[in-house]
Write a structure and sequence with these properties.
Blueprint (H helix, E strand, L loop, with lengths): L3 E5 L2 E4 L4 E8 L8 H18 L5 E10 L6 H9 L3 H19 L4 E11 L15 H24 L3 E4 L2 H12 L19 E3 L2 E3 L3 H5 L4 E2 L6 E3 L2 E7 L12 H5 L5 E10 L2 H19 L8 H15 L7 E11 L2 H16 L7 E2 L4 H7 L16 H6 L15 E5 L4 E4 L10 E5 L6 H15 L4 E6 L5 H6 L3 E7 L20 H11 L10 H21 L9 H9 L13 H14 L9 H4 L11 E8 L5 H21 L6 E5 L2 H4 L3 H17 L1 E7 L3 H4 L8 E6 L4 H11 L5 H4 L5 E2 L3 E10 L8 E9 L3 H7 L3 H13 L4 H13 L4
Parallel strand pairs: 17-22, 17-23, 18-20, 18-21, 19-20, 21-22
Antiparallel strand pairs: 1-2, 2-3, 3-5, 3-6, 4-5, 4-12, 7-8, 9-10, 10-11, 11-13, 11-14, 12-13, 15-16, 15-26, 23-25, 24-25, 25-26
Length: 826
Amino acid sequence: MLPYWDLYRDVLVLTDGRLMYGFYFEPPTHIHFTPDSLLRRSARLKAVFDLAIPDGETMTTYTSLRGAHEDAVADTRRYADACSDPVIRELTHARAALLESKISKGEVSHWRFFATVTVTPSREDRFTADTAPSAREIEDAVKGALALQAGTVAQMNASGFRATAMTQQDVFDECFLYLNPGWPSAPAFVPQEERSISSSRRGLPDQQTLMRQLTASVGSNLDAGYYAAGDRYVDVLSVSRLPEYTETGYLRSITEDLHGTYYVVVQAQRESDYDVSNELEKKKNDLWTRVRSPGVIPNGKAVNLLEQIEMAQRLEGLESRFRAAVSVVLIAGTKDELDTMKRRARGNMSRLRAGLPITYGFQAEAQYFSLAPFAGGFSGFQFSPYTSNVVDIFPPVSPWKGFDEGAITFQNRDKSLIRFDLFTKSTITAHFCVFAPTGSGKTVLVQSLYNAELARYPDAVLLVTDAKQDFESFFKSIQDAQIIHFGYGSETRLNVFDLEDGAALPDGDKLASLMSFVRIFVEPPVNDLREKGYEDVAIMEGIMAIYVQFAQEDRTPQMSDLYRMLTIIENYTDDGRRMEPQVIDAARSAAVRLRKALGSSPVAPFVDCQSNVTLNARRLYFSIYGIPEDDDLMKRVANHIIKNTIWSVARKYERGIKKFVFMDEFENQVQTDQELDAVKRMLRVFRSFGVSFGMGTQSVAASAHFGDLRDSFSHLFIGRYSKDVARDVVRVLSLPEVMEETLPTLNNVVGQYSEFALLVQASGEAGGAGTRVGDVIQVQESKLALWMFNSGNDEVAQKGPYIERAGGDVLKGVKNLVLDKFGGYL
């Protein structure tokens, strides 16, 4: 039933002498799906159909939805196995088990798009399996097909589809997986020149032909309702006629909410323009006598037909006519599953106002084989549309496939899997932002992402700044972690004058940091630059002088020592000369204002102190929860210490080590223009240090502070916003306009998943550098991880007693909670 002859190079040769080439293509993702943008692209697609499909040739597109296999999440389990941290390992194993359970239930699919095109050699060059060609004839024919393939791929790329030519193995893979749907992957193809006689049949040598390699499953048509291919049941549906209306991308309706294994097959064969013209003229002449002849009473149906033919003749030279067909191949593991899939597909097709879908029953076998990739067959139910309508049934948009490898695997809204990683060669930076209103699942998203990154990069460094204690449970449970509390009730003391081990005097970076810290209390004159210069000299001289004074002491200098030095600084100069009067006056003025940080000042215990902790862990959590909301001074003190730690950590570890920095509620932590400038300076150099900077905020207005540095954030996660706010979000973040409609539809199902729009500024994609790709993802975690990461009042109140009974062991306490509530971890 299949006309396959053999694969030569990247072209499949059929027994009737025709050749077929193929190419993969990736339509733009859903985030670009707008009627206007698709209509603009349809003009370019019309050129593809006219140039890629010569008269009499057939292009067949396959939208392939295959049930995902466990191999798709094998990297998640591999990262877990290699992770030394028991908590991260267990959370990652639980995530792998969740994904595998969804795969085993058939809830997630793998999407792929490819097309095949026939090439018919000219009459003088025709050959068949009965009249075998010479080596030169087959070589010339294949060269011509490959040249057409290259041209078609170039045209597809120009039309906004990322297309790549199919290789010999790709062609074999698609044929094999279609004919053997129960196999997880195809074996390696053995080309003709490498085949060896390895067995005998009926005493004669047996060679491994293409068909022998493809037929690995037994077929059965004993049941009248379907065809069985190995251990899978197959059925076929066809659209009975072209819809009463077409719109660009209506094929998306057919695939909506489908998961499992499907092939949506669209076939288009271009008819000869000359033959079509003659046919129309003949029909017009026949109808003319029945409609316009004297003494003839016109027939209403004939009048309508004549009008349609006259309209079709006006399209000559503008539109080509095609023979087209749309079919859906359904493949299921059980009969019940097949019935469910058929009902869902029929429901989708019935919405197209295209007549009832056609089912085949015992003829499904013949239709199944006629639709096989590279078989050159044609469906039995056809339309006769023009180019514009053919373009309308071409796959317009697709789920984003993500990166080739990643630290975490998300599920998108279309129930397929997306691999994602902050550090990827597909983007320029590893920085990201999360924009989402409160209650959108932002905290779970960030912790889930960082847990995956730490599993993939076990030696990575993580620093998180948080004002709401959202990350505390996570940091209490993982290894090599340290929690630093800021606030008036904190017992933590950190002396900003501490130097790195072995250093006697501050270097340029440390000196600049101390200068900016002192300026928190000694505000510089706004309009008097000369006075500011005198103060800068005085403060710098004072800082250097106390380090010299304390060089032999057992303790590090602190803020009160700087205050005393500024009051007597005329006696300490670096060159032995008396200090200038203006600098002496500036030093005394600065000392007076520095009193705000000393003595009975509320901030004095935290500013004028000796350190009682050493920040040497690889994972640091800075909680500013204890600082009152309106206490800007204490916030600035904490922010300065945190910023210095981030700087030192970025430079301390080798560049090859991944470093993650995250600031939650960014707009509440960065208070002044100077602090914002400091973050901008870090952003400019973080890429060189191997740092990924993350920012979480409820307000998109926070991004406006970065100006042109907004392009430094390659990854954007955007949560649900109401329709009115979504318009501003799209404008401020320069998002595709369709996001105005998408953002209000994002869902958050408590205890199950939360949806985010993920947009990635990819490099080197079709359409030029800086192209945004992405999709709507569903952040879903195991019950164990969800209760570990959740930070709502209700969840924290329930976790507390369990953790306390477990002796402070967070993981053990959360495990017991999950066991009591759900009877398991998933």
